[in-house]
Amino acid sequence: MVPKLRIAVVGGGIGGLVAALALTRKGHEVRVFEQAPHPRETGVGMHLGPNGSRLLERWGLGERLRALGVRPTGMEVRDWSHGGTLVRQPMGEEWLAEFGAPYYTIHRADLHTVLGESLPSGVVRPGHRLERFTDTGREVRLEFAGGSTAEADVLIGADGAHSLVRRTLAGPDTAVFSGQSALRGVVARDQVPALPGDTLLVWAGPDARMLVYPVRGGQFLTFVAVVPDPRRRLESWTARGEPDELAARFDGWNPDVKSLVAAVRETRRWALYDREPLARWSSGAVTLLGDAAHPMLPHHGQGVSQAVEDAAVLAHCLDAPARVASSSAARRGLIADALDAYDGVRRPHTTRVQLGSRGGGSQRLLPEEDGGESTGTMSSLVRDVSWIQRHDAEAGLPPLPPAPH
């Protein structure tokens, strides 16, 4: 039997865990090195599009997603001043039929927990902060703070927007600031009983937008307030925000938004940055995945789903060296070829999604007094992302060489 690959994943967030899940399903020996001593996901809710959920369902997580996620029945654009519904886009069963998989809103911590519980014991290694790595031509050697080391056949950088692996591969880069921040948090729905627990809501005002969607069975609502921000702030999605600032931003809006803001006890500021797409993700036996490869703005709600797609394609491509190589030299060449194939499949796709996020999503909604045409714009927003959500990353992949007898 040809031995499987030893694979090191740097970063124990959602991207790192979903990579580990896809790779362990193929029989590889995977270790996820996470710098936090006690790994846990923070943050608020997130979107899991059909392009992501279809893969996770195939990998056996459908029941858990149904238990913890919410399938919104629709999306409504409401007027920022008087609060009336301007247009409603059905979702739920209609989107399931259209895209072949469910659309979920789910708390980040819940998805992180599901992925962690799906991995074999010992895969995640907390308390390992990568300081440097060296590709020796035979293996990749990792060095961690405190002096510990590890060796692997393949290194995957899933270490987020501030990725050390990316900087080592591609050199320093400059974060591109959008001129906006997102003030985010979670409120219990019983604090805002007038708001539904099964609907995506968007209010587009003159100089801000408020998005609200359900998580945890509709018992909680995640809010995302996108506001102009002239300052280049710390690039972090967990920096502390101020509820008083949130209240001031939405003073004079409709009663539903004001009641939501009044219920907020804690908020986080996410200064919205991305980066220019890379010309290459892989070098030798090292590659990138998720935000480390393609940090993108959140306006298409695709950050996590694109990481899931990355993991699916990468696991497929790495099957070639695992199945064929009979010597270390042959295996090494096939690893590089496999990562090149992964890069070639994924990078053009994520570049299109990444650049489209800059001007897409709710940014295109205007208040009615500014000439907004809510019905037409809503239809165009759905068309903007339908090609993304219809995509099946496991369909049409390059064939693998036959396994040895």
Automatic annotation (TrEMBL):
Cofactor(s), names only, from the UniProt record: FAD
Chain intervals for the UniProt region annotation (Disordered): 351-378
In which domain of life is the source organism classified?
Answer: Bacteria
Q: Which residues form the FAD-binding domain?
A: 6-351
Q: Which GO terms describe its molecular function?
A: monooxygenase activity
Q: Which UniProt keywords apply?
A: FAD, Flavoprotein, Monooxygenase, Oxidoreductase
Q: Does the keyword Flavoprotein apply?
A: yes
> Known InterPro entries for this protein?
FAD-bd, FAD-dep_Monooxygenase_BioMet, FAD/NAD-bd_sf
Q: Any idea what this protein is called? A: FAD-dependent monooxygenase
Q: Which organism is it from?
A: Streptomyces vinaceusdrappus
